[in-house]
Amino acid sequence: MVRVNNPSSNLSKIVFYTRMDKIAELQRTMNLILLIVLFVAALIATLFSSYLSKKISTPLSKLCAHIRNISERKFNRIQIPADDEILELVDNINIMVEKLESYDLAQKTFLQNVSHELRTPIMSIRSYAEGIEYGVVETDEAVKVILDETQRLTRLVENLLYLSRLDSIEEPYNFEVLDFHELLHYVAMRMKGIAQQSGKEICTKIEPESVRLSGDEEKLSRAITNILDNGIRYARHKIEINSRITGENNIELIISDDGPGFDTEDLKNVFTRFYKGKRGHFGLGLSIAKSIIEKHSGTITAGNTGEGAFIKITLPVAE
Ligand SMILES: Nc1ncnc2c1ncn2[C@@H]1O[C@H](COP(=O)(O)OP(=O)(O)OP(=O)(O)O)[C@@H](O)[C@H]1O
Ligand SMILES: [Mg+2]
Asked: Residue ranges of the chain with pLDDT lower than 70?
């Protein structure tokens, strides 16, 4: 080290002398340390990212396999240990599987029921037609049965088509503001004739005279007709139609009869497609009514009054 003073000023400088090979060695050591640090960091990053991708990809590939199984109608639930986001996905897939399973079952049951309902009248028509061919049945009786069964088949097919149209998203509902009580009077009047033919009476207590609601006239008439049709079949003497406005701005319609009432067992299922109890027909009328009422944001329930059956409908009044 050398100190150099500048005589013209107070400033001085210090000059260090050192061997360059030591500095070069220090530089080499530092480079090596940096290289090792870099290598370790890269190694840690690679290990961590492969751990992360494994953690995500393992449940995802399990899910993919599970989804492939679902497409082959294997409706098992899946449980895999995973992080929150993946767990949410797994839960949603399980909910979807549950729904798909119930649709699949409903479709199978529906097809079984339809084929059962179609087979019975077709067998009957066939056996009476064969009876005519071999001359073993009275022609008049056979013709009557064949005509009755054909009518039954036509009604069944009509109801099925109606129900499938109601189910489809494309089915147009012509919502318009209409007078619901006027519609009720009209349906009751049409059904009175049919009730009288079997010696029964339809009584109405519909107040106030006019109630406005937003609905599809044809479909609401169909729903009420289906309920009255049952009432006429089961009533001993009379069917009552009571309609009024309740406090919550709802229309409350109760159609009751003085028949045997619903069997306790039936009550849970009367709105299920093809469910029919004693003296039932196809078991479609009330499920059609339910579908229509719910499309009008209403509710429909069934019960017994103690003297017979009732169906209660609530519908919102138009604003
Ligand atoms: N007023 C009633 N009193 C007693 N039981 C009834 C009454 N209405 C319906 N039910 C029971 O509920 C079942 C379902 O009724 P729903 O109208 O859906 O079918 P259905 O009358 O048998 O056949 P359809 O498809 O021709 O209407 C009936 O089979 C019957 O057992
Ligand atoms: Mg019915």
From this structure: 169-170
